[in-house]
Amino acid sequence: MKRQFPLALVFIFGFAMIIQYFIPHQHSEWVNAFFMDWMMIIGIFALALGIWSLTRVSWDKVKHKRENWQYAIVTLAGLFLMIFFGFDYFRHFSTAVGSDNYMYVHFYQYIVIPIQATMFSLLAFFIASAAYRAFRARSLLATLLLIAALVIMLRFNPLLGPLQPVMEKFSVWLLNVPNLAAKRAIVIGVGLGMVATALKVILGIERAYLGKD
Amino acid sequence: MNIFDRMMSLDRRWVFLLLAVVCVITFVWGFSVPITISDEVEAIYNRFDALQEGDMIYMSVDYDPNALAELHPSTYAIAEMCFRKKVKVIFGTLSNLGQGMVHQAITDITDSVKQDATYNGVFYEGREIQNGIDFVFLGYKPYPAMVIQAMGLDFRVPFPTDYYGTPIDSIPIMQGVKNFDQCELVLDLAAGNVAEMWITYGHGNYGVPLCLAVTGVMGADLYPYLGSGQIFGLAAGLLGAAQIEKLADNPGRAMDGMRIQLFAHIVIILFIVMGNIGFLATRKRHKL
Amino acid sequence: MKLKTLIVLMIMLLMSYVPAMAQGDPDVINPEDTTVAEVITPAPATNLSASDTPNDHGHSIDLSWDLSVDDGAGMNNVIGYMVYRATSMDGPFESRSGLLLKTTDYIDAGAINEYENGYMPDHTDYYYKIRALTADTAVYSDSEIFGPIQSYGQWFNWERLAVLLMVAGFLFLTVFFINKAKKGADLFVRRLAGIEAVDEAIGRATEMGKPILYVLGLGTAADIATIASYTILGRVAKKVAEYQTGLIVPCYDPIVMTVAQETVKTAYLDAGRPDAYNEDMVYFVTNQQFAYVAGVNGVMLRERPATNLYMGKFYAESLILAETGTVAGSIQISGTDEISQIPFFVVACDYALIGEELYAASAYLGKEPLLLGSLKAQDYAKAGVIFLAIIGFLSLMFGYDGITDFFHVR
Fold first, then answer.
1. I need a labelling partner for C228 at 20 to 30 A (CA). Which of A86, B137, C139, C183 fits?
2. In this structure, CATH architecture of domain C46-149
3. Which residues of B touch A120 (CB under 8 A)?
4. Contacts of residue A150 in chain B, CB cutoff 8 Å?
5. In 10 A of CB A64, how many CB atoms?
6. What confidence score (pLDDT) does residue C1 get?
């Protein structure tokens, strides 16, 4: 029964949403909006579970002084400080409610933004090392990949002089013909795979997410 | 280990170090590089340049701080261009951290527009930009697809108030403005799959003229939409932002960044070439 | 791929390049000049007609009309049109649109619910007229009133008939091949190096005494890639339990975390090692993209897992994860359906499952008839799509667009 009931729910609601897609009537749209609202509500409750999980794991590390437990203190401090300022408790520093709270805005502008930008900027260095390691002319296909990468990187490079317009036209062709063809082929495969997996879940063939009795 | 083996198996930390050194040197050494303008970016600029005083546009700032370097310059250049030309702007965001991006951009741009400036030979007197009169910021709502479809019916459906809590109906700039029909175009600055949602729901359902400014890695995926006419312009990555700044005659961080990107690309290409020389020489030696 | 085949393909691609090279620059969009004419009452728009918008929720009406003869010709004083609507022939009429330039159609749509702004009741008589405007707001002319017209919702969207037929066809194929598999038919599936490497990778981790890191990606529990990843996680967790290797599963989404915990717990139960299961193996990190990446990178560099498995939805962080894994010395197997991230995984990981191969992985690992049957159905459906694409292409070449129109979903 523990598995049958969720499977039945998945089947009923899965088929309901498939049928809803084909019915444009407003009552059908109401059903869609109703389910979307409930997805948001469940998501917010699940966030509470996630916060509990993170807090428990981090506290456990601090309590038992596991390796690098200091990072767990930073994690917990960041989590609870932002919640604290977001609820605007620090009234004599705040100028407005909620996310306009002075400290919240400053944490966001001077910690969150620089940290996120820094993490993203790691990509530049990792692309360099990945390209150096992977773009080798090991075979004909690998050589074509290498040439395509070089053309796209150089297409707007002014140092090429008179070659630049040719490179630019060739790169436009590369993007609009082989790139588009490959992308569409993968998209078709992915689309069919998605439909197949969704049907398997709805029909109860795919049950890994359910667990066991 | 001979030189070719070393060329092929260089420690990645040398790659990082040389790239960092080149980036720092090109950043500090303030020279400029020529920027080639592409047709798809010029189409964006021309459409904005053709806007008249009193026209209205919708600017959707759908990126997080991690895409700041690539997309913020476009936001600044275009928003300033609109404010200088007295074009009204509706700002919105479909990214939960995008609110901070818009807030920061509006604060900086309103300061900049207070100064007199000349762009492309046209003199613009400095003026005060006022919330509710020159622009409105609607704020953020989740589920981008639903928000775009709702805005196509009426902005008030997903956003009964603006970001600051003022009822939309009491905001002067929104009088007589119902939905995208009153907007000349929509510009989406995106770092995720929201761009494709604007194409599907914004342009697909409501036919709104749409242009995109996206991160570099997304650009390749969106060219087909340019070809099919679903978008009229596309600015991808830092290069796209630099082209917009050059066309607007408003050099900023993107044009500064181009010289760094140019030389970073050259360094990457040199390493690739070096690695291949080592690989081919080593392979030849093994065959012999 | 054979060299000759590749050369032929290259020649075909290059032939398509020739017309591309010959293309001139696309037209630059220029604003149209609007000539302000004398202020004389213009001729009205004509032939106004209205109908219920087909295949919709029932709160929308389609309007069409002919341009005024003074729009771009004649007196040339019409600058645009506005749509007006009333619920009775005598009015009052209210404006329903902004200024429409050189337009001959308009969709008057409203909100569906009474409590929403802009609510447009269905099953209500509406009367429309089109006002042709001039530069002087006091000078305009109205078309004949059209009405009454009512809007009402449809119970089937005929524009999506093609989708219904495709889904029904796919369902039929799935049921057919599942039945065939159940009867013991031997269904061939080709090798997937990435999947075959999973066992080897788990063995490596066991020998080295290091844990396995499994990353479910940045998708939600509703994403198909994440659902496919649960199945792979279940198989990996079962093997890990049998070999008594460590498993670390940092999660991006709280709902994904709860499902993953259940999946891993079940796997340990199936392996007969419920005592070895620790709830802290599967934990929530954060639902901010780069903060999550920073957390996972920290785990990689501290724990030095022998094997990293990236299965699910990934975005810009994919290369950061893969490169850090390389620095940590882990063997890496990835699978994602995000097309823009596939190149990064192909370049940085030892094995990569591309697109639908991720969805096929569950069938591969278990070799269960039900799953293999649905995989074969997928393959035949793909063949059907290729066949339809060729038919569509040929029909367009001969000037018939009926087939492509039928499959154009709105």
1. C183
2. Sandwich (2.60)
3. 66-67, 69
4. 269, 272
5. 8
6. 46
